[in-house]
Design goal:
Layout lengths: L17 H25 L1 E10 L2 E4 L5 E6 L6 E2 L4 E5 L2 H62 L4 H90 L5 H86 L3 H14 L1 H13 L1 H33 L2 E3 L4 E6 L6 E2 L6 E4 L5 E7 L11 E6 L2 E13 L25 E8 L11 E7 L19
Helix pairs in contact: 2-5, 2-6, 2-7, 3-4, 4-5, 4-6, 4-7
């Protein structure tokens, strides 16, 4: 039998070292990367809860009105002072024209008041001069009568001549005093007519006060309703804001509630302004009542004085007539040639009896100075009314200028909230602009990351919208409170419902270099190098937040 072949034993295969080498390389790379990340993490903090922000400016009218034109659209770049919108200005132009007409009317009253003052002053001076002249004449007459009594025994011829002269003088005096009495009567009628006019003006001013007070009551009644509306809409706005943050309502719904709240607040402000204006009108009407009452008192005082002057003039005219009769009798006696001394003695007594009357006329003329004072006060009142009318013209011009809305700053139109034809309330926003093109970064770091943050530390910023662009900045402001404390419903751990959550601290980062292509609201990733633990405020560029 043939022998079976013996099988050759198999040589064991050697395992390839490649997997082991790869494992060692992976572990080594991971260890190196982990070490690098550990070292990097000790001097850097990073967050993706960051976004670009900047200043926004709301453009709104100071006065209410209808929007007649808007000259810009969303996305337009505007310059400071550029015309943005205009309101319908017909009512403001009419108010300006009315105020200017009132000013012209008030100015026209000033020359008349000055003329009245000058006339009254000259009339009073003339009356005083006449009274003093009459007093001097009376003294001369008295002296003449005394001389006639002394000469009566010497010559009857001189007595006759003197008597004839006295007769002529008495007639002239009677005619003069008669004219004065007629002038005094005319003055009394004129002043009584002025008194009636002043009383009518006082009654009209009182009615104006009542009307103005009723206007205040009507607006005040509307004010309580407006306050209640503001309170309700403000509560709805706060509630919708919280719901918006929770995505429970849409932005459009929140904006509608917000617009209602803004409209209610604007309406309340307008009503308060109307109340203030109505109260001012009440005060002005009351001032006019006081002025009218003062004018009535002044005119009534003038009427009393004029009546007294008329009575004195009438009495003087009667006395002058009596004196003329006495003079005629003296002429007859002188011609008769007998009892001349007795007649002249009677004339002397009659002349002396007129001295108190002339003194009363002088006192009445001096009393006319009070009328001059009243006319001077009327001139001052007219000038005051001119100043008030000028202030109303300036206010009307300001209101007309407020119908034109210009850009308060250079920037870009972000949002337009009103269209042509809309009825706007004071303070209602129609456009929202950016304040220039300046933006900065607001990064919300965890409270465990801000321990080593310092002002001026360098920051590397990556914008999600511009993945190939890296921006360098510096820490400018480290928030003094967490974002939760400024929320609509801040946490209150004292209630017992406590859940510890890592809070976020807002940090503002000033950006350096080119800011083109950056818009407010863009999401970013911020990395702060905290290796340097000292502050360097000098590294922050001036005007990083748009302030000059």
């Amino acid at each position: 039998m043939s022998q079976a072949p013996v099988p050759t034993p198999e040589t064991p295969k050697r395992r390839s070292p490649v997997p082991l080498i790869l494992l060692v390389l992976v572990l080594g790379s991971g260890a190196v990367y982990g070490a690098q990340q550990y070292v990097w993490g000790r001097t850097h903090v990073q967050t993706d809860d960051a976004y670009l922000t900047g200043n926004l400016v709301n453009v709104s009218p100071v006065i209410g009105g209808t929007l007649s034109a808007i000259t810009v659209s969303e996305g337009d770049e505007v310059k400071e002072g550029q015309l943005l919108a205009t309101l319908d200005s017909d009512s403001q132009k009419a108010a300006l024209a009315q105020a200017e007409a009132a000013l012209a009317a008030m100015k026209s009253q000033v020359p008349q008041a000055i003329a009245n003052l000058e006339f009254q002053s000259r009339s009073t001076d003339a009356a005083i001069q006449r009274a003093r002249s009459a007093e001097a004449i009376q003294q001369a007459r008295t002296q003449s009568a005394q001389a006639q009594v002394a000469l009566a025994d010497k010559t009857s011829t001189s007595q006759l001549t003197q008597a004839q002269r006295q007769l002529a003088a008495a007639k002239a005096q009677a005619a003069q005093v008669g004219l004065q009495a007629e002038a005094a009567a005319a003055t009394v009628h004129q002043l009584e007519a002025q008194a009636d006019t002043a009383r009518a003006g006082l009654a009209g001013a009182k009615r104006a006060v009542e009307t103005a007070r009723k206007g205040v009551d009507v607006i005040a009644a509307r004010l309580s309703g407006a306050e209640a509306d503001v309170e309700k809409t403000s509560r709805d706005e706060a509630r919708y804001k919280g719901l918006l943050e929770k995505d429970a309502v849409t932005r459009q719904q929140f904006e509608a509630i917000h617009s209602q709240a803004e409209g209610a607040r604007s309406n309340l402000a307008a009503l308060k302004e109307q109340v203030a204006q109505a109260q001012s009108q009440v005060a002005q009407a009351e001032s006019q009542v006081e002025q009218a009452a003062s004018q009535v008192k002044s005119v009534e005082s003038q009427v009393l004085q004029a009546r007294a002057a008329h009575a004195a003039a009438t009495q003087a005219a009667q006395a002058a007539k009596e004196q003329a009769k006495v003079a005629e009798a003296g002429v007859g006696l002188a011609r008769a040639g007998g009892g001349q001394v007795a007649v002249q003695a009677g004339n002397l007594a009659a002349t002396t009896a007129q001295n108190p009357q002339l003194a009363a006329e002088l006192a009445t003329a001096n009393a006319g100075q009070s009328q001059v004072t009243a006319k001077r006060e009327a001139v001052n009142a007219a000038k005051t009314q001119v100043d008030q009318a000028a202030a109303q013209v300036a206010s009307a011009r300001k209101a007309l200028a407020n119908t034109t809305l210009s850009s308060p700053t250079a920037g870009i139109v972000v949002k337009k909230t009103a269209n042509v034809g809309a009825a706007l309330a004071p303070g209602q926003t129609i456009l929202t602009l950016t304040q220039g093109k300046t933006v900065w970064l607001t990064a919300n770091f965890k409270e465990t990351q801000v321990r080593d943050l310092r002002i001026g530390q360098p920051v590397t910023v990556h914008v999600d919208a511009l993945p190939n662009k890296t921006i360098i900045g510096h820490v400018a402001v480290i928030g003094a409170a967490t974002g939760a404390t400024m929320s609509l419903l801040p946490p209150d751990n004292a209630t017992g419902n406590f859940t510890k959550v890592v809070q976020r601290i807002p940090v503002r980062i000033a950006l350096d270099g080119d800011l083109d292509g950056l818009s407010q609201g863009m999401s970013c990733v911020a990395v702060v190098d905290t290796a340097d633990k000292t502050e360097h405020s000098e590294r922050i560029l001036k005007g990083w937040d748009g302030k000059k």
